[in-house]
Design a protein that fits this description.
By secondary structure, this protein is α/β, with parallel strands linked by helices. It has three domains: about 10-45, no CATH class; about 60-140, Pseudouridine synthase (2-Layer Sandwich), CATH 3.30.2350; about 155-294, Cobalamin-binding domain (Rossmann fold, 3-Layer(aba) Sandwich). About 35% of the residues lie in helices and about 15% in strands. It has nine helices and eleven strands. It has a five-stranded parallel β-sheet, sandwiched between helices. A three-stranded antiparallel β-sheet has the order 2-1-3. A three-stranded antiparallel β-sheet has the order 4-5-6. It is elongated, with a radius of gyration of 25 Å.
């Protein structure tokens, strides 16, 4: 049954059987009943109890949305769904307020929630808008068809090491100006690149998010950096990368090497706009920066 009704937990299916909602050849059976083959199994799923979840206007970092699902960036510090002693301020409270429809969910108080992340973990979550999508997505997670990557980051370690490296006379392998382009407010990927670059021996001038071409050029002039790294998560902000590359060339900074990266960015796009390098992820960003630094 769990294979056919994957959106229900085994505990929930056992409850259905105990409540007489599962019949084998027309007869109610106990959870201990053994299937011999050839039987007709019928399960009557009662209507879901009202969730009674209060919608709350909680900001959601939506990456993708269509009529089937929502992909969002869950921030650290927020609980995914209501639980004992936690009835508000959760991601589900925000989803109930935001979405016109959500799947019933495998358990009460979890509409739309196919998988979860711990309170202090940040990352991408997929939310189902209807039960069919929920069931199909749950099957893919159960069958390991969804690839999940976890990255542990120790940001403050580099802050502690930096003074020691300076005292020891360790020179950075290069300087990189880094930022998310104008109109884009996403910084998770950019922050990972920064920490990987620092770990690779670079001094990083982080301009933050929503950075204009003028601000990038100003940072290059002030720092003396030879590499400019740009990040974008939205396809709508990718053209800003082209604007920055163009502005750098128009400023006569022929010695400055530009590199780009981000979820929608490709090597082909880097070639199209005249960027000097492309990094598919934070780890390869270090290698690209080293190559461009000469």
């Amino acid at each position: 049954m769990h294979g056919r009704l994957g959106r229900f937990s085994r505990t929930a299916l056992q409850r259905l059987i105990k409540e007489g909602n599962v019949h084998v050849d027309g007869r109610a059976v106990k959870p201990s009943y053994e299937i011999h083959g050839g039987e007709i199994i019928e399960a009557v799923v009662p209507p879901a109890e009202p969730a009674d979840i209060q919608g709350e206007n909680i900001p959601l970092d939506i990456i993708w949305e269509d009529e089937h699902l929502i992909a969002l960036n869950k921030q650290a510090g927020i609980v995914v769904h209501p639980a004992r002693g936690i009835g508000s301020g959760t991601l589900v409270n925000g989803l109930v307020y935001y979405a016109e429809s959500l799947s019933t969910g495998s358990q009460r108080f979890r509409p739309g929630i196919v998988h979860r992340l711990d309170k202090d973990t940040t990352g991408v979550m997929l939310v189902a808008k209807n039960d069919q999508v929920h069931w199909r997505m749950a099957q893919q997670f159960e069958q390991r068809k969804v690839r999940k990557t976890y990255i542990a980051v120790a940001e403050r370690e580099m802050e502690l090491l930096q003074p020691l490296l300076s005292e020891a006379g360790v020179e950075p392998v290069g300087r990189v100006v880094l930022g998310t382009v104008k109109g884009d407010l996403h910084d998770i990927g950019k922050n990972l690149v920064r920490m990987m670059l620092q770990g690779g021996g670079f001094e990083v001038i982080d301009c933050g998010i929503d950075v204009s071409a003028e601000k990038f050029i100003e940072a290059i002039k002030e720092s003396g950096a030879k590499v400019l790294a740009m990040s974008a998560l939205l396809t709508t902000t990718m053209p800003q990368m082209a604007e920055v590359v163009k502005a750098v060339k128009e400023a006569g900074m022929d010695e400055i090497k530009t590199m780009i990266g981000g979820a929608p960015v490709t090597q082909a796009y880097a070639d199209e706009i005249g960027a000097d390098g492309y990094a598919a992820d934070a780890a390869s960003a270090v290698d690209t920066a080293k190559e461009l630094s000469g």
